[in-house]
Design brief:
Distance between the termini: 32 Å
Strand content: 15-25%
Number of helices: 15
CATH architecture of the largest domain: 3-Layer(aba) Sandwich
Number of domains: 2
Helix content: 25-40%
CATH class of the largest domain: Alpha Beta
Length: about 400
């Protein structure tokens, strides 16, 4: 799909997803690492929980289909090499640290699309701030609406802001490429991880300025007539998600759910026989009470505690409920649906070791995303790239290595 596109990625945790997306679409992506290896190689989790430059599963997940080289960017020789390499590529990704990005003081070729990723953007009072994924996510507002109301905000176990920013950087690069196809000119784009992560807050930041109350943490629950209606329920081996809703359409699902709970002896029959589709109207007319709603929720909690995720999922499909088991990572890996659709592939991540990994993020009618090569080992393709792209001889490459340039 993008086989004629060349991408130079000055490797950083924030750039990995951007290059990963384009590499999956068949672009030739080359990652440039410092001699000691990219910071992405030091990101958890590690194979067998043993750290090492070639053992980061995050590195392996986000750098498949790329080639890799090392370069000490701080020497004069290395700057000359990088300047020459830039002229050979269509797109460049780099990331800012404390307001400074590796390509800031380089002359970007006229037709290149350069995307600069920064935690808080390239301008403004926070543009030079030190950051981590935790601080960027905190500034996004997303954790403010996530978690239990009686505990601190719930942060994400994966580097969410990093992934969001990288994804948007890939979109920005392709947008710049489309513009270049039209006018023949390159451009520099800026991606802010904080703005990208803010979109994960599901537009909640638009609420207060629009006159709506600010959303609070509620464990995915809503409150009606003083009764908390959760969306997440504990079951025998994990959690299930249930939408308890009312009205002519969704209320029918609640009716069937209540009937099932009563048949399983977890809910009084008289509660199950309440007209849940008309509950709003009946509550206003005092035909039902908040206590009836509280009894329904208690019955559902009792029902789910006595069901496994598989049992609950099977019943939800049979009864047509707006409900589903909450998958753990183990459930995802063992999913028959994902396996049948070929959404996992095996890759080598160490001598004699292979693991199953998600194979693609999309399927196209005329193009198949495949794993063409595993993530590069440190400096795996340095010689290959310097020979093919810059025409250096083996003697010249040896001299660069001897002087610590590559």
């Amino acid at each position: 799909m993008l086989s004629d596109l060349r991408v130079l990625e000055i490797s950083a945790p924030e750039t990995m997803q951007a290059g990963n997306i384009l590499a999956a679409l068949d672009a030739d992506v080359v990652v440039v690492e410092p001699l000691s290896g990219s910071a992405g190689r030091r990101m958890e989790p590690f194979l067998d929980e043993i750290p090492g430059l070639e053992r980061s599963l995050t590195w392996h997940a986000l750098n498949r289909n790329k080639r890799g080289m090392t370069l000490d960017r701080h020497s004069a020789d290395s700057r000359d090499l990088l300047e020459s390499l830039l002229a050979k590529f269509d797109i460049a990704f780099d990331a800012a640290t404390d307001g400074v990005a590796p390509l800031d003081d380089f002359t970007i070729p006229e037709k290149m699309i350069r995307i600069r990723i920064a935690p808080f953007g390239h301008t403004g009072p926070k543009s030079g701030y030190a950051s981590s994924d935790l601080t960027v996510m905190a500034a996004s507002g997303a954790p403010g609406v996530t978690g239990d109301p009686d505990r601190p905000p719930l942060f994400f176990p994966a580097p969410q802001a990093m992934m969001e920013g990288g994804s948007d950087a890939a979109i920005a690069a392709l947008s710049g490429l489309a513009a270049r196809d039209r006018d023949g000119l390159g451009q520099t784009g800026h991606a802010s991880s904080r703005i990208s992560a803010m979109m994960s807050a599901m537009s909640q930041h638009l609420g207060p300025p629009s006159g709506n109350p600010e959303t609070k943490r509620g464990y995915g629950a809503m409150t009606l007539a003083g009764v908390q209606i959760p969306s997440m329920y504990e079951c025998a081996d994990g959690f299930v998600m249930i939408s308890v809703a009312f009205g002519p359409v969704f209320g029918q699902m609640t009716q069937r759910l209540a009937k099932w709970a009563a048949e399983e002896n977890h809910l009084a029959r008289k509660i199950a026989e309440i007209s849940w589709p008309s509950f709003f109207t009946d509550l206003a007319q005092k035909k039902v009470t908040p206590a009836d709603l509280a009894a329904l929720i208690d019955g559902l909690k009792s029902l789910t505690r006595n069901k496994t995720k598989a049992e609950f999922g099977a019943a939800a499909r049979k009864l047509g409920l707006l409900a589903s088991p909450v998958f753990s990572m183990k459930d995802v890996a063992e999913s028959a649906q994902y396996r049948e659709r070929g959404l996992f592939t095996s890759i080598a991540i160490a001598p004699g070791r292979e693991i199953d990994v998600p194979s693609r993020f999309a399927q196209f009618s005329n193009f198949s995303i495949e794993t063409r090569r595993p993530a590069p080992m440190l400096s795996e393709h340095t010689v290959e790239i310097l020979e093919a792209d810059l025409g250096l001889s083996r003697i010249e490459i040896q001299a660069l290595f001897a002087h610590g340039v590559i």
